[in-house]
Write a structure and sequence with these properties.
The chain is of the alpha/beta class and 494 residues long. The chain has helices at residues 25-44, 58-80, 92-95, 97-113, 117-146, 148-152, 154-157, 160-174, 182-198, 217-222, 230-245, 270-286, 310-323, 359-369, 386-390, 418-431, 434-451, 465-471; strands at 85-87, 210-212, 257-263, 292-296, 330-336, 374-379, 395-399, 460-463. It has a 6-stranded mixed beta sheet, with helices on both faces.
């Protein structure tokens, strides 16, 4: 006679029936991943009982590690753009170095506490906190792109997510030490926290999993694409020739806009980005894409555009003068860089020594080229000093500040300076008018600077009657609407 089949022990009275396990191993791993991320969020909120909820497995370490890399790559993709970037496998060691610091710290704490199982729990806690640190850091960087006040303080604010998560990790580690061992608990807290923060000084902060096509700053600084390399110098000749050849001639009988954008200081890429951005906005509003050129210096991307030098500007002005109809067309010259108190516009790309621009030099180049109708926009500190030398009946001059005032927002990595964002990024597309955009932008800049308690930059404008009349004949791209410089709609006026 066969033995009776084994039976499950009866459930306690009143206990709910055991929940059936849904899905396979992957579904279970994803549920544990969600639980670990929720626990890490509680740890970041400094909740005392959070560590006991962690699911410590090798699979969780792998999933959290991959998730943190994906979060970092997602921000890189936002910053660089899909079309303008590529995956850089060489950035993986720098992007994943944090994991080594967490593992070493977890092992050290487990050894001090004589509890081998503690290493896995702390490693999972550190990996999950690293994911939230990536989310917080990306949110902070994106916010800095939209709020000038945050943008100016970004260098200091960027440390907050890392320091906060490191403190949360240190507290988590210290909670596993018995309450009576206060010195040991304090020592573990300090060691665990500092281990995560110190690791940031051992990696290249410019390393990106999704990097620009032209390479990152470290590659540009030392490789064959470096600004000072022989290959870059030879390529510059072709870049400038190709850019000049691409400028299309104007159409007789139609007033058209030709544009030159000049990013002078190559030590910060904000000026390259602003020059490219201004060129794009003007092309969209005034259909000037076929009549434009961008000259810009950049340490990180020296082969992206022709260098911005006085000689290159001279050639560009001569070419534009040759292609435009002098009695009909208008030139918009946009200059962006650092400005000095003695009213020089910086033209810089180490190790070269380029000639800085002054208002008198710009006037001389324009006069020599024979360009009559001019819109000159200068985005720099102390740029108001350019007005006296450049103003004339056929000239409009717009500056980011008064002659004795600074302008703001020159953060490396930003898309715009404060003036560039207000004028090109916001106002010009709305007003479809150089003068109308100035009215909008100057009002917004004044409001923001007042809110942030900054010394007012006081953007300036000078408009000659000849250029004002000529601009009334310039048609915008959108529906052929006529551009009226002074006849803007009432809602665009202060």
């Amino acid at each position: 006679m066969s033995p009776p089949a084994a039976q499950e022990p009866p459930a306690p009275a009143g206990a709910p029936p055991p929940a059936p396990r849904r899905g396979g191993r992957l579904a279970g791993a994803l549920r544990d991943l969600g639980a670990n991320l929720r626990t890490a969020l509680a740890l970041a909120a400094l909740r005392a009982r959070a560590p006991q909820c962690l699911r410590a497995t090798v699979m969780q370490l792998v999933l959290l590690f991959v998730l943190e890399l994906l979060l970092g790559a997602a921000y890189d993709l936002y910053s660089v753009g899909w079309a303008a970037g590529r995956f850089d496998a060489f950035a993986l060691p720098a992007a994943s170095f944090w994991a080594l610091a967490v593992l070493l710290s977890a092992g050290l704490v487990a050894a001090i506490c004589a509890d081998a199982a503690l290493a896995a729990v702390l490693a999972v806690a550190g990996f999950a906190l690293a994911c939230w640190e990536s989310v917080a850091a990306a949110a902070l960087a994106i916010a800095a792109d939209f709020w000038p006040a945050m943008d100016r303080a970004y260098a200091s604010l960027s440390w907050i997510p890392l320091v906060w998560m490191a403190l949360a990790y240190g507290l988590c580690a210290a909670r596993f030490v018995p309450a009576g061992a206060r010195r040991r608990r304090l020592g573990i807290f300090v060691v665990s926290t500092l281990a995560l923060i110190a690791a940031q000084w051992a990696v290249d902060p410019a390393a990106r999993l999704w990097s620009p096509e032209s390479g990152d700053e470290s590659e540009a600084a030392s490789g064959p694409q470096a600004p000072q390399s022989e290959q870059t110098l030879y390529d510059q000749l072709d870049l400038l020739d190709d850019a000049l050849d691409a400028i299309a001639p104007g159409q007789a009988g139609v007033t058209e806009l030709f544009t030159i954008s000049f990013g002078g200081d190559g030590t910060q890429d904000v000026f390259l980005r602003e020059a490219v951005g201004a060129d794009s906005v003007m092309a969209d509003v005034f259909d000037s894409g076929a009549h434009s050129i961008v000259l810009a210096n950049s340490q990180a991307h020296p082969q992206e555009r022709p260098f911005a030098t006085v000689s290159a500007l001279q050639r560009a002005l001569a070419t534009v003068a040759d292609r435009m109809n002098g009695d009909e067309d208008v030139l918009a010259l946009f200059l962006t860089s650092h400005g000095t108190a003695d009213h020089h516009l910086s033209v810089s790309l180490p190790p070269y020594e380029f000639e800085d621009l002054t208002a008198e030099r710009v006037r001389e180049l324009l006069d020599d080229a024979g360009i009559r109708y001019r819109v000159i926009i200068v985005s720099s500190c102390y740029s108001g000093a350019f007005i006296a030398a450049l103003a004339g009946p056929d000239t409009m001059v717009i500056t980011a500040s008064a002659a004795d005032r600074a302008s703001f927002g020159c953060r490396d990595g930003a898309q715009w300076t404060d003036f560039g964002r207000a004028y090109f990024g916001e106002a010009l597309a709305q007003a479809a008018s150089f003068e109308g955009a100035f009215r909008i932008a100057s009002r917004r800049i004044a409001e923001r600077e007042a809110q942030e308690r900054l010394t007012a930059s006081l953007p300036q404008i000078s408009v000659g009657e000849g250029i004002r009349d000529r601009l009334t004949r310039l048609e915008t791209r959108r529906g052929g609407r006529i551009l009226f410089a002074m006849r803007a709609r009432n809602d665009l006026l202060p």
